[in-house]
Structures are given as C-alpha cells and as structure tokens.
Design brief:
The complex is a heterodimer of chains A (about 110) and B (about 120). The model of chain A has no long low-confidence stretch (mean pLDDT about 95). By secondary structure, chain A is mainly β. Helices cover about 0% and strands about 55% of the residues of chain A. In chain A, the strands form 2 sheets. In chain A, strands 2, 4, 5, 9, 10 and 11 form a 6-stranded mixed β-sheet that branches. In chain A, strands 1-3-8-7-6 form a 5-stranded antiparallel β-sheet, with no helix packed on it. Chain B is mostly beta strands and about 120 residues long. Helices cover about 0% and strands about 50% of the residues of chain B. In chain B, a hairpin with a 6-residue loop joins strand 4 and strand 5. Chain B starts with a strand and ends with a strand. The mean pLDDT of chain B is about 90. The chains are: A mainly beta (about 110), B mainly beta (about 120). At the A-B interface, strand 5 of A face strand 5 and strand 10 of B.
Chain lengths: ~110, ~120
C-alpha cells in the first residue's frame, strides 16, 4: 500500500530552526510537495522536489532523497506566524497526490 | 500564481437537505479538479477527481450518488452533497491543476465549511 509518515506534532522556539521529516512508500514517484495549512484554511504551496538534493526558498528549505524515500522541510528563523500544520504529499505514478497526516508545528516565544 | 475560488465559504443546513459547493479556476482553465474532505485534526482525504466533460472518478468508500460532481466547463466544478446528515459536516476543499505548471502543482480553493444540524 501507499504510505506517508510524518510526526504528529513538534514544538520549537521563536527564532530557532526546526526540521520536519517525511518518509514515504508509494507506487511510483513524480515529485514531493510540502504545503502549509493554518487552522481553518486551505493548504498553501511551499515547495516541490523531484530530484535529490536541497531546494532553498527564503527561510524554508526542502530536501529529498529518493533512494531513501525521505524528505525534510527546514524552517529557519522561526516566527510565530509559522505555527501551522505542514503537509507532506507525494505524487504517485498516476499523478495523484498521496497525503501525509500533517505535522502540527507549535512555536513558543 | 493561479487562483481557485470556492463558494460558499461556509454553510449551515438542516439534515436531509442538499448543498451545492462551487469551485472555480479564476485565471486558468482546469481540465482536472479535485475534491477533498478534511475532518478536524486529520489530513486531506481525496473524495473524487473531476474531469471536464466526463464523469468524475470517485475514491473507494465515497458514495457517488451522495456526492454529485459536475465539471461542466473548464473553469467550474460543483460538488452537491445530497440528503446531508450531521456526519457529513466537514471542511470541503477543491483544487485544480494548472496545465502549464511544470510541477503538476494543485492550487487549492479556500475551502467550504459545512455544518449539518
């Protein structure tokens, strides 16, 4: 079966760095997405990785290792507004998104 | 970036009534739209894939006669929850794939919160 695993909840301090991990087992691979979702709102796109390596975009970076079925989202210089759920999603061979359950990130002052 | 709208943003209805939710791609044509449902503290669950001009493809366990999907044009898909019951109360989110987007990224609407009394 297809499976996406990510931690349920993480806590970090304002100004610090946090890494959210995601492991996956899917039928085929056409890229991995990270989305941010604030409570009561729809997800918003953060990043896309299809090749191995690190993609950096401002305070957010995303890493992918296809051989290990592993990705992480790195958030630097955390701000209170970064408190949200972070969803890992893999596009399978049918170009369908398989979603993880999301990681709720709590930022403390 | 591509914009997707949903209407209404929230709706409260009585048990047994039907509710229609609209999903529109505002600045692009979407041959494929997706309907998701999200219960509190859970991830997105794909309900169905909506293809313009053809029947929707429903995920296992989703009743096609209860959740009617119509994708009548390249910019509009509708989800009708028929004979709604309290257990249908949820956050319904649509997304659309923008054909020229090299990521095959899905752009999400703002969601519709349905409460069935």
């Amino acid at each position: 079966g297809q499976n996406i695993d990510q931690p349920t909840e993480m806590t970090a301090t304002e100004g610090a760095i946090v890494q959210i991990n995601c492991t996956y087992q899917t039928s085929g691979f056409n890229g991995l997405f990270w989305y941010q979702q604030h409570a009561g709102e729809a997800p918003t796109f953060l990043s896309y990785n299809v090749l191995d390596g690190l993609e950096e975009k401002g305070r957010f970076s995303s890493f992918l290792s296809r051989s290990k079925g592993y990705s992480y989202l790195l958030l630097k210089e955390l701000q209170m507004k970064d408190s949200a759920s972070y969803l890992c999603a893999v596009m399978d061979s049918n170009y369908q998104l398989i979603w993880g359950a999301g990681t709720k990130l709590i930022i403390k002052p | 970036g591509a914009v997707v709208s949903q209407h209404p943003s929230w709706v409260i209805c009585k048990s047994g009534t039907s509710v229609k939710i609209e999903c529109r791609s505002l600045d692009f044509q979407a041959t494929t739209m997706f309907w998701y449902r999200q219960f509190p503290k859970q991830s997105l669950m794909l309900m169905a894939t909506s293809n313009e001009g053809s029947k929707a493809t429903y995920e296992q366990g989703v009743e096609k006669d209860k959740f009617l999907i119509n994708h009548a044009s390249l910019t509009l898909s509708t989800l009708t929850v028929t004979s709604a019951h309290p257990e249908d109360s949820s956050f319904y989110i649509c997304s659309a794939r923008e054909p020229s987007n090299s990521y095959n990224e899905q752009f999400f609407g703002p969601g519709t919160r349905l409460t069935v009394l």
